[in-house]
Write a structure and sequence with these properties.
The strands form two sheets. A four-stranded antiparallel β-sheet has the order 2-3-4-6. The protein has a two-stranded antiparallel ribbon with strand order 1-5. Helix 3 packs across helix 4. It is α+β, with helices and mostly antiparallel strands and 132 residues long. It has a single domain, classed as Outer Surface Protein A, domain 3, CATH 3.90.930. About 7% of the residues have low confidence. Strand 2 and strand 3 form a beta hairpin. The chain is 48% helix and 20% strand.
């Protein structure tokens, strides 16, 4: 099974700011800040590309080697923040092919300490609260 993630496009307000992508989720009132590489990975999640395809594009665009594990970690974070569609397929794939192998390889603490891919979540006030 090849994972072909699809970026969620509905109920989102997307703004590009310098190298960051700011995504406001209208359903949860959360603003998500994706650094440059996370934003590019999210944009490349078009349902047509698999992880290897995404890795090849990143290697060319960033001029350095990006591992498949790194991309899967970004996909895991994007999934956790509800920025991908078809979440059951993604969850099943990550559990089966990625989770244990990667955590054993890098260690749980190191995976959380990685500076990139970085996604920050901020809760924003609802429109009615913001107008007060």
């Amino acid at each position: 099974m090849q994972l072909r993630p699809v970026a969620r496009q509905t109920d989102l307000v997307i703004k590009k700011s310098n190298d960051e992508t700011i995504v406001y989720d209208l359903n949860t009132n959360h603003a998500l800040y994706l650094n440059e590489i996370s934003g590019v990975i999210w944009k490349l999640c078009d349902g047509q590309r698999n992880v290897d395809d995404i890795r090849q594009v990143l290697n060319v665009d960033f001029g350095k080697r990006v591992s498949s594990d790194f991309i899967l970690f970004a996909i895991y974070q994007l999934r956790k923040d509800n920025l991908l569609s078809g979440s059951d397929d993604i969850d099943n794939y990550l559990k089966k092919y990625w989770g244990r192998r990667t955590i054993k390889k890098f260690g749980f603490g190191i995976m959380h300490a990685l500076a990139q891919p970085k996604i920050k979540t901020v809760t924003a006030p609802t429109a009615i609260v913001a107008s007060c």
